[in-house]
Write a structure and sequence with these properties.
Helix content is about 30%, strand content about 20%. It has five helices and eight strands. The protein is globular. The mean pLDDT is about 90.
């Protein structure tokens, strides 16, 4: 089972997420999608629009590195261009977990190296997989989210309108 985080803060954010999910359907079977959350930017670049974030689960025949390549190609097809790290972006697709794989290369770290620190990822992930166990810490997603500072978790706002998705 794969778990991904999608984020966008430029253009039509809802449409960007829908396009990414539809494109992911070309190389994975999406089995669960969280609600969309709106969050302030995370990291050193704070002067930018708020993000829409969601998490999804699914399966794929691709191993981690080919999956990363395919998802980065999809980001480019949607219109993402390289810019400032943690800066504004049309779409960001992060591979959070690929089964129980633990991997560290120059291009990919699994589980995602900042997964345990990000409420904007853990909150939507907890919606679709609260009992999922982090392969390194041994903690559930629910417990990882509960361990974050309350103010950080309260800054993550679930939107009331669900995203209508068309799965391939």
């Amino acid at each position: 089972m794969l778990y991904l985080s999608l984020g966008t803060n430029l253009g039509n954010r809802r449409q960007n997420l829908a396009r990414a999910i539809a494109g992911l359907g070309d190389f994975m079977q999406v089995t669960a999608v969280s609600p969309i959350y709106e969050t302030r930017p995370w990291g050193p670049v704070q002067d930018q629009p708020h993000f829409y974030n969601l998490c999804l689960a699914g399966t794929s025949l691709l191993s981690p590195l080919p999956f990363l390549t395919a998802s980065k190609q999809l980001e480019e097809e949607i219109g993402r261009v390289d810019s400032t790290r943690w800066g504004p972006r049309l779409i960001d697709i992060d591979l959070l977990l690929h089964g129980q794989t633990i991997l560290q290369t120059d291009t990919l770290t699994l589980p995602h190296c900042q997964l345990t620190q990000r409420a904007f990822v853990l909150a939507p992930l907890a919606d679709i997989a609260p009992a999922l166990i982090h392969p390194v810490t041994g903690q559930t997603v629910r417990d990882l989210l509960a361990a974050l500072p309350l103010a950080e978790v309260q800054d993550v706002h679930q939107l009331t309108e669900p995203l209508q998705l068309i799965h391939k």
